[in-house]
Amino acid sequence: MTYRFRRVHRLLKTDEFSSVFSLRQARSTALFQVYARPNDLGHARLGLVVGKKVHKRAVRRNYIKRTVREWFRLNQASLPAQDYIVRAKLAFSRADRAEAVIALSTLFAKLARCRASSSS
């Protein structure tokens, strides 16, 4: 098993983001909002949205993105073949990183349960 985060695992184009946003299957916590849409690629893909409203400093926004990408990289093998967009709602620091990772895990688990119940 490889734990790489290659280009094929990223949402890059505007229309890819738009198709996930238009489906509006979403779950949220205080820190994040996660949107999901099934894809036919056989693997999960990730898109990130961290706006200036979250934090004005690019350093902090980039830290949030790195944290989310790292979580996705380590957990992508257990995720269903869907396109995910993670939108940050609040900034967090290194001290709050563990809480943010737990919030991400919870959101993705909720989306998986929602998908499992809707497909049965």
TrEMBL record:
Provide the reaction this enzyme catalyses: Endonucleolytic cleavage of RNA, removing 5'-extranucleotides from tRNA precursor
Q: Which InterPro entries match?
A: Ribosomal_Su5_D2-typ_SF, Ribsml_uS5_D2-typ_fold_subgr, RNase_P
Q: Keywords for this entry? A: Endonuclease, Hydrolase, Nuclease, RNA-binding, tRNA processing
Q: Which Pfam families match?
A: Ribonuclease_P
Q: What does UniProt give as GO cellular component?
A: ribonuclease P complex
User: Is this entry keyworded Calcium?
Assistant: no
User: Which EC number(s) are documented for this chain?
Assistant: 3.1.26.5
Q: Which Gene3D superfamilies match?
A: 3.30.230.10
Subunit and interaction comment: Consists of a catalytic RNA component (M1 or rnpB) and a protein subunit.
Which family, according to the similarity comment?
Belongs to the RnpA family.
Q: Which HAMAP family match?
A: RNase_P
- What is this protein's name? Ribonuclease P protein component
Q: Which organism is it from?
A: Aquitalea magnusonii
List the lineage, top down.
Answer: Bacteria, Pseudomonadati, Pseudomonadota, Betaproteobacteria, Neisseriales
Q: Which gene encodes it?
A: rnpA
